[in-house]
Design goal:
It is built from three helices and no strands. It has 135 residues and is mainly alpha-helical. The longest helix has 42 residues. The radius of gyration is 26 Å and the shape is rod-shaped.
């Protein structure tokens, strides 16, 4: 088997495995965060969590597929390692940026919700103002 094909198989196996692991980890640990962001609505938190996981899979697996092809043939074992390190490093960076982007957006939503909850209602009137003549 050609070394380039071996590198592709290893790249796909590791990239798909990393994507599944990160998605499951984010889904399990992010559910509590989503429930807080969505003010305790568990059903909505589960639905949003599922939609985020599906989107995460689509974007990351699409990127993995697009980034599969290489420009040059791999000649030796060193080339296999170099190609894999470059490709997997980029995949890991994309996974990390996607995660940080999700956390940033959800944290902004959460902060806005906390600010709305902390606002106090207006104070009830304490006294009456006499009516002005001619008004």
């Amino acid at each position: 088997m050609d070394r380039t094909v071996i590198a592709y198989v290893i790249y796909l196996a590791v990239s798909i495995g990393l994507t599944v692991w990160v998605a499951r980890t984010l889904s399990q640990n992010g559910r509590v965060f989503l429930a807080d962001v969505l003010k305790g609505d568990e059903k909505l938190a589960d639905a949003v969590n599922h939609l985020l996981v599906v989107g995460f899979y689509l974007v990351n697996l699409g990127f993995v597929a697009l980034y599969l092809s290489g420009d040059e043939a791999i000649e030796d074992t060193r080339g296999v390692f170099e190609a894999l390190s470059t490709k997997l490093g980029v995949v890991l960076l994309v996974l990390g940026v996607m995660h940080l982007g999700n956390v940033y957006v959800l944290n902004r939503i959460r902060r806005r919700g906390v600010m709305e909850r902390e606002q106090f209602p207006p104070v009830a009137p304490q006294d009456w103002t006499p009516r002005q003549a001619g008004a």
